[in-house]
Write a structure and sequence with these properties.
The chain is an alpha/beta fold. The chain has 2 domains: 4-144, NAD(P)-binding Rossmann-like Domain (Rossmann fold), CATH 3.40.50; 148-311, Lactate dehydrogenase/glycoside hydrolase, family 4, C-terminal (L-2-Hydroxyisocaproate Dehydrogenase, Chain A, domain 2), CATH 3.90.110.10. Helices cover 43% and strands 21% of the residues. It has helices at 15-27, 40-52, 94-110, 124-135, 148-162, 195-202, 208-229, 234-248, 293-311; strands at 4-11, 32-36, 61-64, 73-78, 116-119, 142-144, 169-170, 173-174, 182-183, 189-190, 193-194, 253-262, 268-279, 282-286. The protein has a 6-stranded parallel β-sheet, sandwiched between helices. The protein has a 3-stranded antiparallel β-sheet with strand order 7-10-11. A 3-stranded antiparallel β-sheet has the order 12-13-14. A hairpin with a 2-residue loop joins β10 (189-190) and β11. It is globular and about 55 Å long. The mean pLDDT is 94.
């Protein structure tokens, strides 16, 4: 199937899927966006609602469709799945969402889908690995949203703490998109300035207790939002929009997406959220960034938790 690089699909039209579709409309990345949902009427309603705003957005066609309609899409964003409940970990979603993913992949592979799979459903690292394993696609074409959102939260909170625009903060959250994720403090900087040097110039102090507080705020951000409004969707829509932009515009940008590891960091048999170069072909290169000893140990611990989760799946 020949790929149409101006066509994309969002599979799953809940809060997350609809928010991503809205973000795509704002960005104007695609000329045709197809929405799919188990509830066809829901997809139709979202397409109609979004289309009403097109005179004030980008010129594009937004339709509800079937799997036949997305076989030639350059990008298929999978958000279908059940929501995370208050107090529930992302890993506890595995059984329910893996079954949904299997059904979707059977439909896509039957139609020789040749585009890139972008997994957003949680637990995203586990489902990214499952999607790669079940689809038979090369790992370049199967990526997850990973810790792109967590990293944005890190930059935002660190920017507030340091009194600087978060767009000038360069830092990563890596590992599991979940409770075992870790902040790479050793590589964090503000426009190339080491945090200690920036603090000195800014007349501020970033203590160990401050770093731990920020990390806990990042880890607990999703749960805090879920407790207040039932789900998170705007932040992840912005993150997915950023990933899609890298693919469509072939930016070769560095983002901490979820990717299948093949001995990077000495790890394999799982997908993990790690800085990687992303472009038109999807995953171009996983980057083995420098880590402190404690960070490397934390990454291996995170990987071990994910491998245990994957081991319980029938793939």
């Amino acid at each position: 199937m020949e790929v149409n690089f101006r066509k994309a699909a969002v599979i799953g039209c809940g809060f997350v899927g609809a928010s991503i579709a809205f973000r795509f409309l704002q960005q104007g990345l695609f000329s045709h966006l197809v929405l799919l949902d188990a509830n066809r009427a829901k997809a139709e309603g979202e397409a109609m609602d979004l289309s009403d705003g097109m005179p004030y957005g980008a010129a594009m066609e937004i339709t509800a469709g079937s799997y036949d309609d997305i076989a030639d899409c350059a990008l298929a964003v999978i958000t279908a799945g059940v929501n995370q409940k208050p107090g529930e970990t992302r890993l506890e979603l595995i059984g329910r969402n893996t079954a949904i993913l299997k059904a979707i992949l059977q439909e896509l592979t039957a139609r020789n889908f040749g585009g890139i799979l972008l997994i957003v459903s949680n637990p995203v690292d586990v489902l990214t690995y499952a999607a790669w394993k079940l689809s038979g696609f090369p790992r370049q074409r199967v990526i997850g949203s990973g810790t792109v959102l967590d990293t944005a939260r890190f930059k935002q909170l660190l920017g507030e703490e340091m009194g600087v625009d978060s767009r000038n903060v360069h830092a990563f959250i890596i590992g599991e998109h979940g409770d075992s994720e870790l902040a790479v403090w050793s590589g964090a900087n503000v426009s190339g300035l080491d945090l200690d040097d920036f603090c000195r110039l800014r007349g501020k102090e970033l203590r160990r207790a401050d770093m731990e507080r920020l990390y806990q705020d990042i880890r607990g951000s999703a749960d805090a939002i879920i407790q207040r409004k039932g789900a998170t969707y705007y932040g992840i829509a912005m993150a997915v929009g950023r990933i899609a932009q890298c693919i469509v515009k072939d930016e070769h940008a560095v983002l901490p997406v979820s990717a299948v590891l093949e001995q990077e960091y000495g790890l394999e048999g799982l997908a993990l959220s790690i800085p990687a170069i992303v472009g038109r072909d999807g995953l171009e290169k996983i980057l083995e960034i420098p880590l402190g000893q404690a960070e490397r140990t934390a990454l291996r611990d995170s990987a071990q938790q994910l491998k245990q989760a994957i081991g319980g799946l029938a793939l």
